[in-house]
Amino acid sequence: MSQDTPTEPVAFDHQAFTARLPESPGVYIMKDAKGAIFYIGKSINLKSRVRSYFSGGDSRPFVKRLDKLLDSIDVILTATEAEALVLENTLIKAHQPRFNVMLRDDKSYLSLSIDPKGVWPRVEVMRSRPGKKPPSVRHFGPYHSSRALRQTLQLLNRHFMLRTCPDHVLNNRSRPCLQYQIKRCPAPCVFEVDRAQYDEHVHETILFLDGKTEELKLRLTDRMMEASEAMDFEVAARFRDQLRAIDTMMEPQQAEVAQDIDQDAFGQYREGDRLTIQALFVRGGRLEGTRVFSFKDHDVPEAEFYSSFLNLYYQGGNAIPHEVLLPIEIEDAEALADVLGGLRGGKVAVLTPQRGRKKELVDSAGRNAENTFKSQQVGGEQAADLLEKLQKRLKLSRWPERIECFDISNFQGAQVVASMVVFEGGQPSKKEYRHFKIKTVEGQDDFASMYEVLERRFKRALTGEWPSPDLVVIDGGKGQLGQAVTILSDLGIHGVDAISLAKSRVDPGSTGDAVTRSPERVFLPGRKNPIVLRQNSAELFLLQRLRDEAHRFAITFHRQQRRKATLRSALDDIPGVGPGKKKALLDHFGAVKKIRGASLDQLAAVDGISIALARRIFAFFNSEAALDP
Ligand code: SF4
Which of 45, 242, 401, 478 is most enclosed, with most CB atoms within 10 A? Predict the structure, then answer.
């Protein structure tokens, strides 16, 4: 195992970086060359938001200086924009980036605050980022909606016995207000109020806002019992109502908010022998941060790897949470939990969640790991290394700059289609991907279909319409490779390497628990025995990725074709729509999809379609749930 190597800053190439960013919600963290965070932002679309910093339209002073300031950007993906907002706030609080303080747009901030050291503290609504406040002031939020904030405030004002009036009212009252009359405030504006008791209310308010509801409920229950034993039923009833209100308020949140515990969720992404692990740190139910670990030459079995990785990580002095959430089962989970529990001085669970919020956290960590991995790929040198290895290992006659992989897909022998995916410089070049509908082959004959596809593809190379590949990869064994070699020879094409990648097979004779599989094999022309590339090697991973991409692309196209055919034939099922009317409808609308979306008036406007028939067609498509894509 290589050393823990957190993200290394590299010279910042914003075009390459933004090209790899996903169009999903998350938080971006800008750092300078020393690794100091100078700005944190969130967006519903990370790609377009981060790209906008480099398009020249942002006049903020620090954006103008980005070329000098910016060394790297970390991103954390979130499931929703709301989650991004909360995370952004947490990170801003934790890191206090210098440009956020001065420049952030405060409109989205809606939070509550209380100063426990103030004069008769009260809960205040903050509509913007807090300005200069005494350090004792506690802030809670942001709230995603004013409704959520209003509900919280309403509950506090009804049940927590704090004043609601602003300071100038407090200082100038000669009589208590209605709050006192309805027993929601002890009226410190006028009366001598027991300071210790008021402080108790402040403390309980903070417990509630901190989400420490279990602790709060225990306290309130104790006090309710005391009041009841003292026959002070009015006070006991007040505590009872307070407890009920808290329960009602917390109910809808139980499903989505984790309990008030700390969790570290780990996710991973792997390509060949390179592995990225990303940890998400949840503190008190809130996502507070993340950390990335990258490993090269990784070939230790995953379960074994996690055991030693977690051991090293936590023994190294990192904070140990209540729960460690992992993407895979590890054998010594219990032993590890004991060790961590000993270090932490309390119970620790090491879990592999299968569903619910914990599973979502692990999945989110995995998505983040994948994103980090991809954003760390510097392309150039690594890709060159990989292609060189591939050329050597497979004894290719030329540098495999442009690789094309072909796959055939059919449905019960019918509607045969093929895909061609293209990798340039070791990376997918999606704009070059092509589909083919097989035209000359009857039924299911993969060899003949492959011949047709390659013939059509290479004729385009001969006419100069499409560039020639350096390497052709066929999904299959010796037979499929034979087709490729034949067509290249038939068309007189030289200098193109061809190989085939055969899937692993279950070894004959292996049964039950002892089932074993052969490794994947690469067939080369003129060579009897296939080459077996090292498991987890980057070269094998590249070929697998090509094959899987070709398969995915073929299947997607195939599904589209089938759906179109299903829709087209659906017209035949409508009573009264014969060949003539079907043609009239298709000529008018151009596609069945459009007929399906047409209004009654639009259908009736077609030549030869009566109102009654238009009604029938409309009813057919608008109640034909089975045809929904
Ligand atoms: S009773 Fe007095 S302290 Fe309480 S809210 Fe009214 S004015 Fe303020």
Answer: 242
> Residue 193 and residue 205: Cα distance in Å, rounded?
18
Candidate of 120, 174, 177 to mutate for ligand 1, largest count of ligand atoms within 8 Å of Cβ:
177
Q: Looking at the predicted structure, is the pLDDT value of residue 490 above 60?
A: yes
Q: Domain of 396: which CATH number?
A: 3.30.420.340
User: What is the model's pLDDT at position 266?
Assistant: 93
Residue nearest to atom 1 of ligand 1 (CA): 187
- β-partners of residue 537 are none
Query: Higher confidence at residue 150 or residue 60?
Result: 150
Q: Determine which helix (DSSP H) or strand (DSSP E) holds 37, and give its type and residue range.
A: strand 37-43
Strands (DSSP E) along 439-484, which ranges?
471-475
Examine the domain organization and report whether 22 and 93 are in the same domain: yes
In a domain, 562, yes or no: no
Mark which of 306, 341, 376 sits at the end of a domain: 376
Rounded CA-CA distance 261/285 in Å is 6
For residue range 329-374, list pLDDT tens digits in order. 887 788 888 888 888 888 899 999 988 778 888 998 898 888 777 7
Domain of 372, in residue numbers: 263-376
223 and 342 together in one domain = no
Instruction: State residue 64's pLDDT score.
Output: 80
Measured between its terminal Cα atoms, the distance across the chain in Å is: 47
Pocket of ligand 1 (CB under 6 A): 163-165, 169-170, 173, 176-177, 179-180, 185, 187-189
Does 290 share its domain with 429?
A: no
Give me ligand 1 centre to Cα 173, in Å: 8
CATH number at residue 611: 1.10.150.20
Distance of alpha carbon 151 from alpha carbon 249, whole angstroms: 8
Alpha helices per DSSP H over 491-610? 538-570, 579-589, 592-597, 600-604
Q: Are residues 580 and 551 in the same domain?
A: no
Beta strand extents in 296-372 (DSSP E only): 323-325, 349-351
Q: How far is the CA of 161 from the centre of ligand 1 (A)?
A: 10
Residue to probe by mutation, ligand 1, list 180, 183, 192, most atoms within 8 Å of CB: 180
Please state the domain count of the chain: 5
Q: Supply the pLDDT for residue 514.
A: 46
Q: Which of 489, 495, 505, 504 is nearest to 543 (CA)?
A: 504
Average pLDDT score over the chain: 79
Cα Rg of the chain, angstroms: 33
pLDDT of residue 186: 93
Return d(Cα 358, Cα 356) in angstroms, integer.
6
Domain end marker among 351, 376, 401: 376
Whether the CB-CB separation of 400 and 387 falls below 8 Å is answered with: yes
